[in-house]
Every structure is written in C-alpha cells, then in structure tokens.
DNA sequence: TTGTAAGCGTTATCAG
DNA sequence: CTGATAACGCTTACAA
C-alpha cells in the first residue's frame, strides 16, 4: 500500500483545517483563491488522494454499480458475445458519469441469496444480467426500494424495471422473413434449460405464430423445437434432428446454437442457403463474421447495456423520471444465409 | 435503498452494545452462547446486514480487487474470447476467497494516469490486463508498494510481478510444427499497434527464429509480417498480401486475425489445409469451433486469470511467498488446419 | 463475558 | 471565507 496521506496531513501542511481542504477538493466556490492554491500545492506535494471508502461512508454513496452475473453466464462465455458486448455498453456510460462496476456473482438462485448479496455490498444500484432468477425478485427489490434494472430476459407481464428487446416482434420478423421468401416448412429452435424454455423464447414463439397465422400456415407444436444450449450438445442434437426432419428454413435463438448449426451443416455438406435457410437472433456484428454471414434479428446488445445503465443512473442520482421498462424493436439484418425457397 | 438498520439498532434490540454485536457477527469465541443466540435473533428480526463500507474503513481493507482494463480491450470484445475467459479464471478464485472484482477502465496510457486511478479507488490490489501500458509502471508500483499482477503481456527482462505464457517457446513450437510437416515457406503474422509490435510477439519472433535456425532455414525479415489487429482491416490486409506472396504455412497471433484469415481463405476459395496450413495462438476451445478447426498454440487464458488472482491474493493477505513471475509453457493442440506440405 | 471509548477519513452543519 | 464538531457504521484495545 502507498503510505497513506490523509486530508489531515494536507490541512496541517497548508495551515488550514480539514474542512477547508475538503472544500478545496470538492471545488467549493466559497474558499479564497489564494488558500485554494496553497492547498492544491500541498496536495501535490504530499501526493494526497482522497480515500473513496471514507467518502462513501460520509456521503452514503459509492459511485459504484453492482453488476450481477450468474456463474453460468460467466462460464460459457467463449463464443458467446452477449456478456462482453453488454458490458461494453455499460462501461461506456459508467465511465462518462464517473461510476465504476463491481462484479457480483451469484451462487444460489433464489431471491433470498440474491438480496443477501445485494445488501452485503454497498453499491448504489444493481444491473442484473439475464433477468430475475426468481419471479418475485423484482417485486421484492421494488418493495425494498433497491435501485435495479434487469437486462435482457424479463417477464412481459411484470411491472419491474427492465430493458429488453421486443421478442414477440423478433419472432414475428424472423418468421415473416422466411415466409416472404416462400418457405413453408420452418422450425423455430429454442433453448431448453432444465426442461423449460426461457421467457424470451416464449414471446418469440408467440410472434412466430403470428407470422404463420397471417400467412395462413397452421401452427403445430412440432414447429417449435426444444434443444440444448451449449456448443457440444446442440451440435449433436441438431445432427440427429436433421436426420429425420429436414425443414427448408431454420430460426436459431442465439450465437452458440447458431455456430454449432453452421458447423454441423458444413460438416454434413448441407449447403446454406441453397438447401436450408438460416435466421438467427443475436449480435449482428458477430454474425457478420461467420461464413456464410447470417441473416440476423438484431439484438443490439450494446444498446441494452447502455440503456440499462442510463436508466439505473437516472434513478440513482434521482434525476429525471424514466419509464420503468424500455423495450426496443428489433431489426432484421439481411445477409447471405437466407434465399428464396426452392430456387 | 433499504431502510438502513445498523449495528446499533441490533445492539439496542438485544440489550447489548455494538461491541458485542460486532463480536457476534465476526464469530468471536469470547461471547456467551446465550447472548450470541439473542443477537442472531435480533439480526434476523431486524434484517440487519453489516455495511461493507464502514467495515472497510475500520479495517483498512475492502476485499475488492481492481481489474484494470483498457478501453481498447473492452471495445473489440466480440469474437475475442481473451477478456471473458481470463475473467472466468479470475472470478473463480475471487469467489472462493470472498473477494469481489471492481472494473477499472483506463482513459490515458501513461503511468501517471494509471497510478491516479489506482489510488483513487480503495481496492486491495490490482490485476492489470494486457500488461503495463508504460515501461516504468511496474517499477513505480513496486516502489509504492501497490500489490499488483500483470496478466499476459510483459517485458521478459523485467522483475515485475506477472503471469504469462512462454511466448518464445510458443513461437518455437508453432514454427517447429510446420517445419516438421515439411513446410519451408512460412510466415509469422504479428499484430501492429500504432507502428510497433507488442512484446509478446517480439518473443514469439525469437522462438520462431530459433525453430528456423535449427532446421537450417535462413531467417529473413520478410518472414515476419506486420498486420492490423482488427477484424475489418486484417481481412483486407491479408487479401492484398496473399495476392503477391503465397506461403505454404501461416502462423496467426490471435483469435481475431485468425478468424479474418479463415474467412478470407474461404471467400477466395483457398483450401485449408490443402493449399495452406494454419497455426494460431489463442484459446484452444475457441479454435475447436471454427471450420476447419485450427491447430492451436494454447494460451490457457483461464489459467492465466486463476493464477494471477491467486498470486495477488497471496500477496494481499500476506500469506505464503510466491515467485514474482509465473510463466507457463504453452502446448500445441493439433487439429485440422495443418498438414504435410505438398502432399 | 461484556461495556467504554477511541479511531478509520470524509463530509456537513453550524458558528464565527 | 474558515474553523470546530458532530456524524457515517464498524472494529478493537482497554477496562470492568
């Protein structure tokens, strides 16, 4: 540790009191220009830097935002740009406004273990990646007046504070795009975690269904296929799946499953888009760099991060009011993985 | 904010003083079992959780490690698994030992702006990703007794605290692998940032040179090619480069340039490994999922993160002594991107 | 076994 | 404009 020089040292060195030094470093107008100079001089001389912890204690604020990430999420990061991309958005805003990010990782899954973490650390607010682990979490946090914003997944019914993409619309756009290209035999692939599918996919299914309906294609359960979410298992799942069912269009729900699908099709010699058209949800920048590049329902993950942080800081600093939830319409980025059916 | 219930509230509620409550929550042995029960009861009842800031101030320790990341690094994260992977290693250890990670991002590049950041935040130590931005940084930090560990890049001559891979050996292994396969016309591609190449590549060049020497192949400057490091520019650089020079073996220095190379070769219809063999430095897991999968000189990035954190915490907690630098020998993972020359 | 009281380094409220 | 002095919430000798 650097030898600690405190505000008192500076005060004595420049023949004033702590109060004055405090005023100087906080750029208070009510301090004589000359003493201000003297104090700054002393600060330089002694190499003083204010102790953030002490300041936090006195002010009751840290200028630190806790970012809650599940172990799971930080685990399968290779090839999954969600985490780093959202982080980029978050830090951009944080830096602008002089806030720092404290990484908080979860062990348990229940609201209890959540709130425990939440309170143990003195941070000014929470950004919760991947949405609430527990349905009641939002309600509990609201009740305890804990400032927070969920990023990504969310319950569309809930009144909780979150930022997300309009997944229903996304599912609709993806389906419509393929239908417009003449595809009739389309599958929506959704990740299955512990036997259930995530809320954002539930919404996408609804949108997909709407697109089918508009085109007069009857919806059947088999058009939505549950699959594993990791690289390894999704690859083998798709391998066996495509052996007995060969749609002309496939909608994938994220970067990882899209990559394994792309790899599998290449390995099996199935041409994209000639034999099968692919649409993926996810980061458009990422899918630009795959081969073939993929038609993408854009998630704008960086925007998610930026917006969530802005919402949270507005709330924390008690500034302007912002609507509790912000949902962005997705856009489709057309690339080389889709073409007219059967041409 | 949750209504703050302090140690004093608990004390009054359970008819003891702050001191006793403090002892209870710190699990001190010198407190009566029955009052201990009473106090815990009160804690539960009131929903008390200790304030970390206050505790930090009193103890002079935070249980927080600052992770210094350059803006640049957090910017080009898509497709670059270094950051998330090293983070995984770091958080694994941090969680085990009850530490948290504070993300610190750099604006300037000089040691001055570095140390300023370093001191403004009260953290117990620093993990500096990508190595020192300034040659003197390590020395300065050492002099100021700031606990730190550099991760990744480093000056091999320096006495500073860092963990890294043996890049000279890596360059040697990569070169030798291709040479053993009969290749004679090999290029080592190294990233160029602001006109100069990074230290870890300087070492790789040395190793590459050693491999050539052993095989009796004369070294020439043109065998080492400087190129841009981002997706976009590296793609176009390679495009023009390969028009006028067509080696039989290429060594790429990271994930991003490898991807753009792979994409380019595919786009141009140049077969890997039939027409050209590829070796890359980087994360073996990542390169397993490219097509073709790439022969990789493994960086074990997660190991870097884990080890760095362990070193730092040993130093912070003043436990056992650990050598200031730890360097790990790389391994080569053989995959489908290399084959015998001309067969 | 428990209480008292002095810090830890700031900020903030009064006076002067 | 500047100085005392009391917070902020917790730990820790030192007493009792």
Task: Give the helix/strand layout.
The structure is a homodimer of 343-residue chains.
Chain A (H helix, E strand, L loop, with lengths): L6 H7 L4 H8 L7 H14 L5 H8 L4 E7 H5 L6 H15 L3 E7 L4 H10 L4 E5 L7 H7 L4 E4 L10 E4 L1 H14 L5 E8 L2 E2 L1 H16 L9 E4 L3 H14 L4 E4 L2 H14 L8 E6 L1 H5 L6 E4 L2 H16 L8 E4 L2 E3 L10
Parallel strand pairs in A: 1-2, 1-3, 3-4, 4-5, 5-12, 6-8, 6-9, 9-10, 10-11
Antiparallel strand pairs in A: 6-7, 11-13
Helix pairs in contact in A: 1-2, 1-3, 6-14, 9-10, 11-12
Chain A binds a DNA duplex (16 and 16 nucleotides) through helix 2 and helix 4.
Sum up the overall morphology of chain A in one term: elongated
Largest protein-protein interface = A-B, 55 and 55 residues
Using only C-alpha atoms, the radius of gyration of chain A works out to: 26 Å
**Number of helices in the DSSP assignment of chain A:** 14
- Averaging pLDDT over every residue of chain A, what do you get? 89
Give me the count of strands of chain A: 13
Strand content of chain A: 15-25%
User: Which oligomeric form is depicted?
Assistant: homodimer
Low-confidence stretches of chain A: none
Topology order of chain A in helix (H) and strand (E) letters: HHHHEHHEHEHEEHEEHEHEHEHEHEE
How far from one another are the termini of chain A? 70 Å
Largest sheet of chain A: 7 strands, mixed
Structural class of chain A: alpha/beta
Helical content band of chain A? 40-55%
């Amino acid at each position: 540790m650097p030898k600690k020089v405190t505000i008192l040292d500076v005060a004595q060195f420049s023949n004033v009191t702590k109060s004055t030094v405090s005023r100087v470093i906080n750029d208070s107008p009510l301090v004589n220009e000359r003493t201000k100079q003297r104090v700054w001089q002393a600060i330089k001389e002694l190499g003083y830097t204010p102790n953030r912890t002490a300041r936090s204690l006195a002010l009751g604020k840290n200028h630190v935002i806790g970012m809650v990430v599940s172990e799971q999420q930080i685990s399968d990061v290779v090839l999954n740009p969600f985490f780093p991309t959202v982080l980029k958005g978050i830090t951009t805003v944080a830096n602008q406004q002089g806030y720092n990010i404290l990484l908080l990782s979860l062990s348990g899954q229940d609201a209890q273990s959540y709130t425990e973490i939440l309170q143990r650390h003195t941070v000014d607010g929470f950004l919760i990646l991947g949405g609430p682990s527990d349905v009641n979490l939002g309600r509990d946090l609201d009740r305890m007046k804990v400032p927070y914003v969920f990023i990504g997944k969310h319950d569309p019914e809930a009144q909780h504070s979150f930022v997300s993409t309009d997944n229903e619309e996304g599912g609709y756009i993806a389906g419509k795009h393929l239908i417009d290209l003449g595809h009739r035999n389309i599958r929506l692939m959704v990740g299955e975690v512990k036997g259930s599918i995530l809320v954002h996919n539930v919404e996408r299914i609804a949108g997909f269904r709407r697109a089918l309906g508009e085109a007069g294609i009857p919806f059947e359960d088999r058009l939505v296929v549950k699959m594993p979410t990791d690289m390894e298992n999704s690859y083998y799942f798709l391998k066996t799946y495509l052996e007995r069912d060969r749609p002309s269009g496939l909608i994938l729900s994220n970067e990882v499953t899209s990559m394994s699908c792309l790899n599998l099709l290449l390995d099996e010699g199935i041409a994209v888009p000639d034999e099968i058209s692919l649409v993926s949800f996810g980061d458009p920048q990422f899918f630009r760099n795959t081969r073939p590049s993929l038609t993408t329902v854009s998630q704008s993950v960086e925007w998610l991060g930026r917006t969530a942080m802005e919402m949270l800081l507005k709330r924390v600093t008690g500034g302007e009011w912002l609507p509790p939830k912000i949902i962005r319409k997705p856009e489709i980025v057309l690339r080389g993985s889709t073409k007219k059916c059967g041409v």
